[in-house]
Automatic annotation (TrEMBL):
Pathway: Pyrimidine metabolism; UMP biosynthesis via salvage pathway; UMP from uracil: step 1/1. Keywords: Allosteric enzyme, Glycosyltransferase, GTP-binding, Magnesium, Nucleotide-binding, Transferase. This is Uracil phosphoribosyltransferase. It comes from Pseudoglutamicibacter albus DNF00011. Allosterically activated by GTP. Residues 5-209 form the Phosphoribosyltransferase domain. Belongs to the UPRTase family. GO terms for cellular component: cytoplasm. 5-phospho-alpha-D-ribose 1-diphosphate binds at residues 78, 103, 130-138, 202. One of its GO terms (molecular function) is uracil phosphoribosyltransferase activity. It catalyses: UMP + diphosphate = 5-phospho-alpha-D-ribose 1-diphosphate + uracil. Its cofactor is Mg(2+). GO terms for biological process: UMP salvage; uracil salvage. Its EC number is 2.4.2.9.
Length: 212
C-alpha cells in the first residue's frame, strides 16, 4: 500500500476552511466537492486507458479513452456521498456503486447497512471515497469487501486521516500493492471518542445534519 499526502496550497487552504467550526453546511459541501476534485486528479494518475482513434477537423490522430471495464467509484454512505459529484466531474463515465456503513459510536464496530455494487468486480479499478479515516475500521471493512467481490485495485481518497487509521490500513494491506491511499491531511491522532484531532468534527453531520 502506498500513502500519498497531496500537498498543495489550494488543498491546504480549503482544508483549513473545512475545519473551521463556523463554516456552514452549504460551504462545507462545496469545499468537499472542490477538494475531492483536486485529490482525484492525483489519485487517477494510474487509471487504465486504451488507445482510440480521433478525427480532428484537420487530421486523424491517436487518443485515449478509459479501458474496459470502466473504473468504479464507491462512496461510503453517508459522508462519502458528499464527495461523489466532485469525483464524477473528473470521471464522468465511471460507474458508481454504493456501500452504506456506519460506525457504532460506542463499540466502534462497523455496521454495513447497504450495498449496491455491480455483481462482478473482476479487473475493476475501484475508487473508494470517504472524507474521514479515523480508526480505519470502515476502510479496512470496505477494501476487504471489494477484494472479496473480485476488485483488482482499490484506491481510497479521504480528506483527513489519523495516524492510527493509516497504521491499521498498513497492518492489513501494507504489503499489498493493489491498495493506494490519497489524503489531503494527516492529523495528530484520535480523541477518547475516536474522533480525529484536530479533524473537522463529524463529517456526515456537517454535510447533511441539521444546521445549527
Ligand atoms: O475510520 P473509522 O473509525 O471507521 O471512522 C470513519 C468513518 O466514520 C464516518 O462515518 P460514520 O460512521 O460517522 O457514518 P456517516 O457517514 O453516516 O456519518 C466517516 O465518514 C467514515 O466512514
Ligand atoms: O473525526 C471523525 C471520526 C469519524 N467520523 C467523522 O465524521 N469524524
Ligand atoms: Mg458520522
Amino acid at each position: 500500500m502506498r500513502v500519498h499526502v497531496v500537498e498543495h496550497p489550494l488543498v491546504a487552504h480549503k482544508i483549513s476552511v473545512l475545519r473551521d467550526k463556523t463554516t456552514p453546511s452549504p460551504v462545507f459541501r462545496q469545499l468537499t466537492e472542490e477538494l475531492v476534485t483536486l485529490l482525484s486528479y492525483e489519485a487517477t494518475r494510474d487509471v487504465r486507458t486504451r488507445e482510440v482513434t480521433v478525427e480532428t477537423p484537420v487530421a486523424t490522430t491517436k487518443g485515449v479513452a478509459f479501458a474496459k471495464p470502466t473504473p468504479l467509484v464507491v462512496p461510503i454512505l453517508r459522508a462519502g456521498l458528499g464527495m461523489l459529484e466532485g469525483m464524477m466531474r473528473l470521471l464522468p463515465t465511471a460507474e458508481v456503486g454504493f456501500l452504506g456503513m456506519a460506525r457504532n459510536e460506542e463499540t466502534l464496530d462497523i455496521i454495513t447497512y447497504a450495498e449496491r455494487l455491480p455483481d462482478d468486480l473482476s479487473n475493476r479499478q475501484v475508487f473508494v471515497i470517504d472524507p474521514m479515516l479515523a480508526t480505519g475500521g470502515t476502510l479496512v471493512e470496505s477494501i476487504g469487501y471489494l477484494f472479496e467481490h473480485g476488485a483488482d485495485q482499490v484506491t481510497c481518497i479521504c480528506l483527513i486521516a489519523a495516524p492510527e487509521g493509516v497504521e491499521r490500513l498498513n497492518a492489513a494491506y501494507g504489503d499489498d500493492d493493489r491498495v493506494n491511499l490519497y489524503i489531503a491531511a494527516l492529523d495528530e491522532g484520535l480523541d477518547e471518542n475516536a474522533y480525529i484531532v484536530p479533524g473537522l468534527g463529524d463529517a456526515g453531520d456537517r454535510l447533511y445534519g441539521l444546521a445549527e
